[in-house]
Amino acid sequence: MSEVLAMRPTPPEGTPPPVAVEVRGVSKRYGERQALDDVTLRVHRGEFFGLLGPNGAGKSTLVEIMEGLRRADAGSVAVFGESPWPRNTALLPRLGVQTQSSAFFVRQTAHEHLRTVAALYGAPKTAVDATLATAGLTAQRDVRVENLSGGQRQRLAIASALVHGPELIFLDEPTAALDPQARRDLWEVLRGLKAEGRTIVYTTHHLDEAEALCDRVAILVAGAIAVTDSPHNLVDASKTPSRLLLPLGRLDEEEAAALPGVDRVTVQGGSLVLETRTAGRVLSAVDRLTGLDGVQTRTASLEDVYLDLTARAANAPGGPAPATPADATEQQR
Ligand code: ADP
Ligand code: MG
Predict the structure, then answer these.
(1) Closest approach atom of ligand 1 to CA 61
(2) Cα separations (Å) of 253 from 48, 246, 281?
(3) Which residues contact 101 (CB under 8 A, 6 or more apart)?
(4) What is the C-alpha R_g of the chain?
(5) Can you list the positions of beta strands (E) in 125-261?
(6) Which end of the chain, N or C, is surrounded by fewer C-beta atoms within 10 Å?
């Protein structure tokens, strides 16, 4: 954890960034269920990469195939140029893995558990307390794992993925069980790992989080990648309008509708709401007419893009069937 990865020289312009994970045409079926369908993606070294998608979309299956914990039916995966399957012992020390259902030595204290994990990897003992601190578990150092809260266990699972200082870190819904403060604290931990040059692949259903952390995201819908891009580009390319909220009485509805760039005007919750795809232009027009005091903006977010994509897929012919109770049981595994 402590040693910072050697700084690599900046590659000359036009050189493609080095690849950490290359997934090509990966498919995976569980009985009748096509969990992944011809998935192709590339994660660059040093990148913070998010895999987003509704429950059952195939996120865990995909990360577990990248980690070498599951075998793909078709396609190929290369991690640092090597196949993670069958179990590749040369790769293991370079990977940090937190799965959705982590195994613990429950009778041990947090410190003992992490020391055991560190020993498995041959990591130095000094890494144990440092990693507990990183994960915000210093106060729980001597608490038995079975007595930790859900969020604390989650953080211990993350610490277990980090203790040996891996270059590439896979985290499957690391913030799912965390309260808002713990979630923000973990964001700082993850940003710190990225700043050290590590590569992070993680799944989440928190769109705000993906937007705040990820260099690029892939949105997985029913086992297929719907889009891969930076959150910024996805939001930029989306058709979702921004909304400007004006206190009532500044402009009447007709005046507002006549402003160049305004697509629609409604009254909602004590505000005049102007929908627009050219927010800057409308804002400056409003500024000229009434000033911007009390004007609020609601810009499109990754969540809008995501909701749009997943809704479109659900409505498409042959789109995903709603999750069945059988799916729910599979999720418990
Ligand atoms: P996500 O992590 O996005 O929620 P998963 O990869 O866990 O998605 O699951 C994708 C699909 O595959 C779901 O329909 C799930 O029920 C099914 N599935 C996952 N693991 C198994 C398994 N071991 N056996 C059978 N079906 C599974
Ligand atoms: Mg999952």
Answers:
(1) 6
(2) 44, 11, 18
(3) 333
(4) 23
(5) 168-172, 199-204, 216-221, 224-229, 242-247
(6) C
- Tell me which architecture the domain covering 19-236+306-332 has in CATH: 3-Layer(aba) Sandwich (3.40)
Q: Please enumerate in sequence order all residues whose Cβ is within 8 A of that of 324, keeping only pairs 6 or more positions apart, or say none.
A: none
Per-residue pLDDT reduced to its tens digit, 176-223: 878 888 888 889 989 999 999 999 999 998 888 999 999 999 999 999
Query: Which phi and psi (to 5°) does residue 168 adopt?
Result: -125, 125
Every domain of the chain and the residues it spans: 19-236+306-332, 241-299
Q: Measuring from atom 26 of ligand 1, which residue has the nearest CA?
A: 30
What does the alpha-carbon distance between residue 139 and residue 135 come to, in Å, rounded to a whole number? 11
Least confident of 5-9, 20-24, 96-100, 247-251: 5-9
Q: Facing residues of 258 across strands? A: none
Pocket flag, ligand 1, residue 57 (CB < 6 Å): yes
Q: Which amino acid is located at 101 in the chain?
A: S
Concatenating the DSSP letter of every residue in 65-127 gives HHHTSS--SEEEEEETTB--TTT-TTTGGGEEEE-SS----TTSBHHHHHHHHHHHHT--THH
The answer to whether domain 241-299 has CATH 3.30.70 is yes
- Left (φ > 0), alpha (ψ -120 to 50) or beta: where does 158 sit? alpha
* One fold for 19-236+306-332 and 241-299: no
Residues in the chain, overall count: 333
- Two structure tokens written together for 51: 């895999």
327 CB near ligand 1 (under 6 Å): yes
In eight-state DSSP terms, residue 139 is: G
Per-residue pLDDT tens for 16-74?
789 999 999 999 999 999 999 999 999 999 999 999 999 999 999 999 999 999 999 99
Structure tokens at 182: 């713990």
Identify the residue whose C-alpha is closest to ligand 1 atom 14: 56
**221 within ligand 1 shell (Cβ under 6 A):** no
